Amino acid sequence: MARMLSYSDKGSVIHSLSGTTKLLYFLIWSLASMITYDTRLLLFMFVVSLVIFRVSKVDFEDIAFVLKLILVFLCINLIAIFIFSPEEGVKIYQSRTQIVHLFGNYNLTVQQLFYEMNVALKYFTIIPIALLFILTTNPSEFASSLNKIGLSYKISYAVAITLRYIPDMQRDYVIVSQAQQARGIDMSRKVSLLKRIKNVAAVLIPLFFSSMDRIDTISNAMELRGFGKKNKRTWYAAKKMKRLDFAVISALVILAVIAVIITFAGGSRFYNPFV
Amino acid sequence: MRKAVIEFKNFSFKYRVQKLPSLSDINLTIYEGEKVLIVGPSGSGKSTLANCINGLVPFSYAGVTEGDLRIKDQNPAELGIFGLSKLVGTVLQDTDGQFVGLTVAEDIAFSLENDCMEQSEMLGRVAETAGIVELTQYMGHSPQALSGGQKQRVSLGGVLVDNVDILLFDEPLANLDPATGKYAMELIDRIHRDSKATILIVEHRLEDVLHCSVDRVIVMTEGRIVADTVPSELLSSDILKKTGIREPLYITSLKYAGCDISASIHPEHINSIVLEDLKDKLVKWHENNIPELNEPQSSKILELKNISFGYEKNRQVLTDINFDIYKGEMVGLVGQNGAGKSTLSKIICGFEKTSAGTISLNGKSLDTDSIAERAQKIGLVMQNPNHMLSKPMLFDEVALGLVTRGKSKEEIDGRVFDVLKICGLYEFRNWPISALSYGQKKRVTIASILVLNPEVIILDEPTAGQDFRHYTEFMEFLLKLNRERGTTILMITHDMHLLLEYTERSVVLAGGRVIADARPASILTNDEIINKASLKRTSLYELAMRTGIKDSRAFVQHFIDYDRRIRSNGTDVKL
């Protein structure tokens, strides 16, 4: 828990790539996955994501909690799609194979299931890459790559500092929640969800104030050391683009082009196994 | 003719949000290459003075200035905060909060990055600076993962890398254990000699700073400079007593013995002071009062048996901890940063589960009790009050523990008002918490724990960041709780004075084990324990040695007893 979603150098190939490469990878990958509904392509990307995750040597435990959280949202999303548009799959795939009648106008169809599976698959192609990006990129180096692709360094640094303070905030949260528990505020499963949410809110207030103190100190420290003096700055942690980086970016561009071609070849973004 | 680098002339400053000026009528000249100590109680304006020099005033904290300030013959208003940062390097008090870089090297490089130095050149400069502050082997580490002293050296590296002319240290000893603090002063001294920089140290711990010599001491109180003199003159005057700054213990004990301190005997350091004419008086004072050391006997309240713990497998933080706390005791838990003191307190409160061992209260095991159940009996007051305070209003904050336990409104009102009276907070009962001072907030956290009527209170660094007057007030308040309510108190601390003055017994942790459990007078005169636990030998011990008093432990104990008598007779404890 204490080290959730924070960077640590595990020395894999993925870690050694420059931040710029990983940022581009993440952006193009997400874009490709968002555009296409081609099941074959999505499956392929999903498998590639898993392979990359494996190569990165990141432990599954490091992401387990976040993954669970995302899965919960994914389920909510899938159920919501079904509630608001139970015949979406039928409309898209122009055919109808009913499995079972549920109630009222709600019927479960193979087409709807297939469509929602595609939606889930999109999540699964992006999640490993997004998490990897956060876990394998040194925040300062990330800032330098944001700066390199044209973002102002002040904004870049703000992003990096936010990432850097995630572990600190987590530590503070643990301390504060322990203090509250000692006063008798129960945050375990023994109390109702509503009460638990209320009790967590009690922790957020002290957390907010201690974070404000932190911000005050850090901004003073930064100013005293000349941050914001010039329009440009250099980066100690900047990594030069290496041959591998260029190779990865080239492969990525080719993949993106192929993805676009495959997706739009049939005149529709959807791969249709039903006709 | 020496060259002036900092010149205040009839200078005043008032923060925009405050009614009264924080600095008035400051006339001060600091010359090139000087090493100057600025002392004063909290709120005396010493930090504001430092902030005027580094530019945080008025660029970050707005306000109205009058009079004239020149730094290296330039007007700070024209230089701006960035221009000033090339002349003045500041090491802030909160070393934890001021790290910008992810690694030590990056943090040191920060100001070079802002100057757009090329990466290749930067690498060399950073490596060189890391060498000066002795961090070469830690360059790739995260600053957060280092010890307190190392953290401070990272901050120091971050300003040294700029080759500034003036180095400003804001309370450099605040977060360090005694041995590390001593080392920090030696490092500052070395940098002073090697770099010829002008050095300003803002502190209230006079004795610890004077471990290495300083050229001048500026004493501030209520926004004014009340003394600007050399250490020997200061120590032989009554200025310290008037302004509420703790004088070195060896001076206090010499005064108790009836000795006159004059500048001519060089009282600025325990090794420099000429004792020839004072020896007899001191020995006589000692021999008249050799203390009897009888061990207090009462029943055990808290027992720790064979406690072991580790956050990760195969990495033990605590190993086989055994000690007992007796009813009504005030006990100190000491040891260097990272020795496992705070972890132990969390284990006692049930925040962490032990891997082995048993904790019992009044003979009954606590092992199956939940955090909330333990909290009824054992209260933990955390170091930072902001981590505990969660309600906007004082009354609600103190009542919180009772409300969540479902007590009736009458009972809550009664108990909260009682506790507020004990803690001297009754008059503030309708105040919002945000309007209270740091010390008052700290009292609120204690009140919110006391209201549950615990038998034992654990305080984590109760006096950190407080000046002598607040320290005394706060500790006398704890003493009163201890005496009048019989509350057993366990204090985690770095403060050697606190140990000597307010604890009957100290448990010393080092490397996750208990290495000593004895009277503070025995511990602070035992070199082996002192070294292992990063403590510092009390200057009383050295005084005893230099005077030829063989039983230094008895001498220290005598001093403690005498001092306690003086305090309980002499000071009127207001609550």
UniProtKB/TrEMBL annotation, chain A:
Location of the protein in the cell: Membrane
Membrane topology category: Multi-pass membrane protein
Matching InterPro entries: ABC/ECF_trnsptr_transmembrane (IPR003339)
GO cellular component: plasma membrane
TM region(s), chain numbering: 26-53, 65-84, 120-138, 246-266
The entry's keywords: Membrane, Transmembrane, Transmembrane helix
Top-level division of the source organism's lineage: Bacteria
Pfam families in alphabetical order: CbiQ
Protein name (Swiss-Prot/TrEMBL): Cobalt ABC transporter permease
Organism encoding this protein: Ruminiclostridium cellobioparum subsp. termitidis CT1112
From TrEMBL, chain B:
Gene Ontology terms for molecular function: ATP binding; ATP hydrolysis activity; ATPase-coupled transmembrane transporter activity
Entry-linked CDD domains: ABC_cobalt_CbiO_domain1
A Pfam match: ABC_tran
Keywords tagged on the record: ATP-binding, Cell membrane, Membrane, Nucleotide-binding, Repeat, Translocase, Transport
Superkingdom of origin: Bacteria
Mode of membrane association: Peripheral membrane protein
InterPro entries listed in its UniProt record: AAA+_ATPase, ABC_Co_transporter, ABC_transporter-like_ATP-bd, ABC_transporter-like_CS, ABC_transpr_CbiO/EcfA_su, ECF_ABC_transporter_ATP-bd, P-loop_NTPase
Record bears the keyword Repeat: yes
Cellular component terms (Gene Ontology): ATP-binding cassette (ABC) transporter complex
Stretches assigned to the ABC transporter domain: 6-247, 302-536
Main location: membrane
Protein's cellular compartments: Cell membrane
SUPFAM superfamilies per UniProt: P-loop containing nucleoside triphosphate hydrolases
NCBIfam families per the UniProt record, alphabetical: PRK13648.1 (NF010167)
Function in brief: Probably part of an ABC transporter complex. Responsible for energy coupling to the transport system.
Family per similarity comment: Belongs to the ABC transporter superfamily.
Name of the protein: ABC transporter
Organism: Ruminiclostridium cellobioparum subsp. termitidis CT1112
